[in-house]
Amino acid sequence: MDLEIINQIRTTFENLPDHRKPGNNRKYAVEDAALSAFSVFFTQSPSFLDYQQRMQKLHNRNNAQSIFGVHQIPSTSQIGNLLDPIAPETLYPVLAEVGDQLYTQGCLKPFMSVGGTLLVAMDGTDSFSSEKISCPCCTQQTLKNGQTLYRHTVVTPVIVAPGQSRVVPLPPEFVRVQDGVDKQDCELAAAKRWLTTWGAHYAPRGITVLGDDLYCHQPFCEAVRAQHLDFLFVCKPDSHALLYEWLDDFTRTGEVQTLEKSRWNGKQRLTERYRYLNQVPLRNSDDALMVNWCEVTILNAKQEVVYRNAWATSHTLDEHNVIDMVAAGRARWKIENENNNVLKNHGYHFEHNFAHGKQHLSNFLATLNLLAFLAHTALEWLDEAYRAVRHAAPSRRTFFEQFRTLLQFMPFDNWQHLMRFMLYGENLIPRKT
Predict the structure, then answer these.
(1) Where is the signal peptide (predicted)?
(2) Which candidate, 18, 135, 12, 137, places its Cα nearest to that of 82?
(3) Which of 36, 102, 111, 181 would disulfide-bridge 107, Cβ 3.0–4.6 Å?
């Protein structure tokens, strides 16, 4: 595993707070609990630790120690007890550091988009929900049947780009009960907190924030601009009546600019019609924020509409950038397909209740899961052997099946030993003496 990533993660875990009272049983270190939990998410194997304990008995060595640096493997309940009091914010810096490493090493150059900015898509997703299990961090929703649904929701900002299959997770922000605030927390409030916490960190790189229509209202747009970031948000007619009245008026006077192009999608010729207008009010008020609007309508060979969407942005629009602006806006879906969908349906089991705890455990484990996803993404750029092994496998699923099986039954000296074995086979691996 890339040495710098290992050091960043281990240093973070070494510095996690230990909330045990003096005199309590300290057989297991908090660092070992965090590394053990991380190893489960990284290997995508809920039973990974059980196999390593069995391997320790059989071979007097195990992969949790040799690859992840776990000195002693705690039980599942011990892991929960040690990690429950620790706020997930303690993990946010390492997510930022790994992403920063990708940026400084030039890995994100292909992600540069409109106006020379990186696109950061925002969206909220559930990591837990139950009508029976709850903790102080849960938000509550009253269902139609009168029952209360307890939820953990998290805003997961990710760097996306048109034409890029990878996404880069950034530090998250959880929707949760806030101290001293009676009003229930929500996705927008969490997203604003993220801007306050991380805006200054990412602003020097040039950032355009992407979001659906929920984000396209004046207070949030102003919060984005206050951090010296740009925005590009879906802008629907139903929630922006005045803006679309202005558009209708300017359409009648011929002031809405238009652009048309056609392309072959492999099956038929599509027509793409772009419209755009600068400086229209986002809301009906004297202090309305003036935004720039663009729309694309895609028609098939029969001139039937197959796609239509529109956006409001802080970027000035012209005939040279409107097509790229629309492509950037459409890249927002990657947070759902390449991030949320992968986390939930492709091995990370993001919505699975690994453990809930009484304080922060659920959110802490969800953040570890995000860190594992980010580590896998970063290794494809930074670890040549890992990249070769991943590309040699027919699919992501096959790679992780092989990865899990080897770690369950064979002890390896270290990460490099495992990667060489997966690349070249046992006969080419020097035996440990």
Answers:
(1) none
(2) 18
(3) 102
